Amino acid sequence: QFQLVESGGGSAQPGGSPRLSCAASGVILKYYVTGWFRQAPGKAREGVSCITSRDGGTNYTDSVKGRFTISRDNSKNTVYLEMTSLKPEDTAVYYCAADWSPSPTTCTAGDGEWRYEYWGKGTLVTVSS
Q: What is the predicted pLDDT for the residue at 30?
């Protein structure tokens, strides 16, 4: 059974650097495009970053470029989102999602939710002093 489980959320101070994890079970994540989305209180869910299945190409939404880094550890079947220089506006529930993509492909953070077949339940990141 395919399952994505996010972890690493919690309370953080502005400027903090938490790392979110998205652990997959039931599938080999390197054959999936994996995306990170977030939903802030009262706002629509937005794409934050993605990593392609084959060559590990990455993409970020403008608001996190230079601050967040997405990566994948194939040996652990896990995708990470390393967050630095956190801002209060980064407060949100963060979700990872996966799209079956065994052939070379691209991704952008702006790809809609429709692209992804599988979703985790999310992990809350709260940024406040």
A: 92
d(CA 43, CA 54) in angstroms, rounded, equals 32
- The pLDDT of residue 56 is 92
State both tokens at 33.
Answer: 């495009």
Rounded to a whole number, what is the distance in angstroms from the first to the last CA of the chain?
A: 40
pLDDT in tens, 104-124: 899 999 999 999 999 999 999
Q: Please state, in angstroms and rounded to a whole number, the distance separating the CA atoms of residues 21 and 80.
A: 5
Edge-to-edge strand order for the sheet containing 78-83? 3-7, 19-25, 78-83, 68-73
Question: What is the spatial distance between Cα 90 and Cα 99, in angstroms, rounded to a whole number?
Answer: 24
Could you tell me which of 129, 106, 121 has the C-alpha nearest to residue 53?
A: 106
Weakly modelled stretches of the chain, pLDDT under 70 = none
Strands (E), the chain: 3-7, 10-12, 19-25, 32-39, 46-51, 58-60, 68-73, 78-83, 92-100, 118-119, 123-127
Closest residue by Cα to residue 56 from 66, 71, 69, 45: 71
